[in-house]
Amino acid sequence: LTPLLPHIDHRNRGMRTRLGCLSHKSDSYSDFTAILPDKPNRALKRLSTEEATRWADSFDVLLSHKYGLAAFRAFLKTEFSEENLEFWLACEDFKKTRSAAKLASKAQRIFEEFIDVQAPREVNIDFQTRELTRRNMQEPSLTCFDQAQGKVHSLMEKDSYPRFLRSKIYTDLLSQTQRRLS
């Protein structure tokens, strides 16, 4: 039994190291530029300070801007909560579904990925909303995720969005756009 102890201790140290790497939160401007929809330098040259400043006007202004969305996604990744944005975007895409045949399968995929208990990217919603959404799945419609999407939107707006506006990603981005003007 004694020879196993050093091996166990070594595994625990390895696990601590891996967990330490996982919990490292990078909140840098480079994390944002790495996921920009097109070439970072070209994209940032097109982003004005005025546009980036408007993201602070409202959460919906941020979500409606291509680079605002990319910056917010990068920020959520640092907080390990990008599933909220991904769910919200999946719902927005779902609402554009025109084919009745595709509606049910898309709804099922979204439910299994984000809503179901123990879903791979489960969003944080209350039991009542989860159950209402489960009932809505019996006859999927374009509005079957509305309540869950609203709760997740509200959660991001009240919780993540204010932190994003104070984040290094956002403040560095504003500094970069302002430096170009000088």
UniProtKB/TrEMBL annotation:
Membrane topology reported for the UniProt record = Peripheral membrane protein
Q: What keywords were assigned to this record?
A: Cell membrane, Cell projection, Membrane, Nucleus, Signal transduction inhibitor
Main location, first listed in the record: membrane
Which GO terms of type biological process are on file? negative regulation of signal transduction
Q: What is this protein called?
A: Regulator of G-protein signaling 8
What region holds the RGS domain? 58-174
Instruction: State the source organism's domain of life.
Output: Eukaryota
Record localization: Cell membrane; Cell projection, Dendrite; Nucleus; Perikaryon
